[in-house]
From TrEMBL:
Chief place of localization: endoplasmic reticulum
Keyword Glycosyltransferase: yes
Protein name: UDP-N-acetylglucosamine transferase subunit ALG13
Upper lineage: Eukaryota, Metazoa, Chordata, Craniata, Vertebrata
Record-stated family: Belongs to the glycosyltransferase 28 family.
Protein's organism: Mustela putorius furo (European domestic ferret)
Occurrences of domain Glycosyl transferase family 28 C-terminal (ranges): 4-134
Subcellular location: Endoplasmic reticulum
Highest taxon listed in the record's lineage: Eukaryota
Broad enzyme group: transferase
GO molecular function annotations of the record: N-acetylglucosaminyldiphosphodolichol N-acetylglucosaminyltransferase activity
One Pfam entry name: Glyco_tran_28_C
Cellular component GO terms held in the UniProt record: endoplasmic reticulum
E.C. designation(s): 2.4.1.141
Keywords assigned by UniProt, alphabetized: Endoplasmic reticulum, Glycosyltransferase, Transferase
Length: 164
């Protein structure tokens, strides 16, 4: 079983949920060998219809106490650019695609994603460029995020968000 896990944290990011559950994107996941898509949709208004066929399954939920289990099972994580979700995924050493929400003002999230991309830890895109990225990205080029250094990460976050 190869699984894609999509998380929006506690926010709502309907554009992302719409994009990953769209027919064309599901075809891309299938062509890449994935056969399960788990969507954590937070406060979103859009609730895709779960389904299960012989070749593919889609699961949907709003919140769980912990995303640990879903992250552990995932072969690819697609996340909103929240620092918590990014860090948790990178610490589990899962390939990560961060989708930046262009509708958010003061987009610190973009700075964070750009920097982690520059350092080789993740791929990032917007909703509209996600299908192309999925087809072109090479997960083997990603570098592991140095584990157990949350203080470095928070210092880095402070810098990005301009607290220093």
């Amino acid at each position: 079983m190869k699984c894609v896990f999509v998380t929006v944290g506690t926010t709502s990011f309907d554009d992302l949920i719409a994009r990953v559950s769209a027919h064309d994107t599901l075809q891309i996941f299938k062509s890449l060998g994935y056969n399960r898509l788990v969507l954590q949709i937070g406060r979103g208004k859009l609730v895709p219809e779960p389904f299960s066929t012989e070749s593919f399954a889609l699961d949907v939920y709003r919140y769980k106490d912990s995303l640990k289990e879903d992250l552990q099972k995932a072969d690819l994580v697609i996340s909103h650019a929240g620092a918590g979700s990014c860090l948790e995924t990178l610490e589990k050493r899962k390939p990560l695609v961060v989708v930046v929400n262009e509708k958010l003002m003061n987009n610190h999230q973009l700075e964070l994603a750009k920097q982690l991309h520059k350092d080789g830890h993740l791929f990032y895109c917007t909703c509209s460029t996600l299908p192309g990225l999925l087809q072109s990205m090479d997960l083997s080029t990603l570098k592991c995020f140095p584990p157990g250094q949350p203080e470095k990460f928070s210092a880095f976050l402070d810098k990005v968000v301009g607290l220093q």
